[in-house]
């Protein structure tokens, strides 16, 4: 079972790697199933539940772990590299989603959820904590070190942040209400600052994740260039 030099466990491989990816797929898949059974104003609104950044991040996590499971089953370097490429943005994004959600929720839950549509506790954890736990474990134990520099992460996260802002405003124009009540409280300049701040948080979280990876794997090992994974027998 092959792995990059700093990588802690074998992956892709039909072992712990496959188990973790299948558990993640089951968790993320259940969350999407729950959305199809949960009757809310978003069920029939323009954009469905994909108006929420949480659901966009969940979809990225599901894609990431599906690619990982395919890599494990087929011993495919191609799927493995694709999984890692998605993880570079999906993992720090989930960190930011979790930090912002639980931080704002502790202060004022009404800024996040329309009154009367609070998630049950287990589903709340499934949406806002489980993805970051699964993705972080995949990064630390089953992935090579990230090579994207901080300025690259900042540029990509800024593009996606303002892309999401455009999507939020489009859904508002169609539905007549904002996805998160917080957006209705803020002025346009304040919303701009919020999205810029969120993009910066993604960059910071990416740097912190790199530091954690290096701490677990060993700084010297994690900083050495890794060789491309060759096709396994």
Automatic annotation (TrEMBL):
Annotated localization: Endomembrane system
Membrane topology according to the record: Multi-pass membrane protein
InterPro entries, per database record: ADTRP_AIG1
Keyword annotations of the record: Membrane, Transmembrane, Transmembrane helix
Domain of life: Eukaryota
GO terms under cellular component: endomembrane system; membrane
Name recorded for this polypeptide: Membrane protein
Source organism per UniProt: Tolypocladium ophioglossoides (strain CBS 100239) (Snaketongue truffleclub)
Upper taxonomic lineage: Eukaryota, Fungi, Dikarya, Ascomycota, Pezizomycotina
């Amino acid at each position: 079972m092959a792995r990059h030099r700093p990588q802690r466990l074998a992956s892709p491989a039909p072992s712990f790697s496959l188990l973790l990816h299948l558990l993640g797929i089951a968790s993320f898949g259940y969350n999407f199933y729950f959305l199809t059974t949960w009757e809310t104003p978003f069920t029939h609104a323009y954009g469905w539940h994909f108006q929420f950044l949480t659901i966009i991040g969940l979809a990225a996590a599901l894609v990431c772990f599906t690619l990982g499971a395919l890599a494990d089953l087929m011993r495919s370097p191609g799927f493995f590299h694709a999984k890692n490429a998605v993880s570079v943005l999906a993992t720090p994004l989930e960190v930011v989603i979790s930090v912002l959600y639980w931080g704002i929720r502790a202060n004022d839950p009404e800024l996040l959820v329309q009154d009367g549509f609070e998630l049950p506790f287990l589903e709340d954890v499934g949406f806002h904590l489980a993805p970051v736990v699964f993705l972080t474990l995949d990064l630390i134990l089953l992935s090579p070190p990230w090579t994207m520099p901080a300025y690259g992460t900042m540029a990509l996260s800024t593009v996606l942040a303002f892309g999401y802002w455009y999507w939020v405003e489009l859904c508002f124009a169609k539905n007549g209400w904002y996805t998160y009540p917080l957006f209705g409280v803020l002025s346009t300049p304040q919303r701009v600052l919020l999205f810029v701040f969120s993009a910066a948080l993604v960059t910071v979280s990416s740097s912190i994740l790199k530091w954690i990876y290096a701490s677990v794997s060993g700084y010297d090992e994690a900083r050495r260039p890794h060789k491309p994974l060759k096709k396994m027998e």
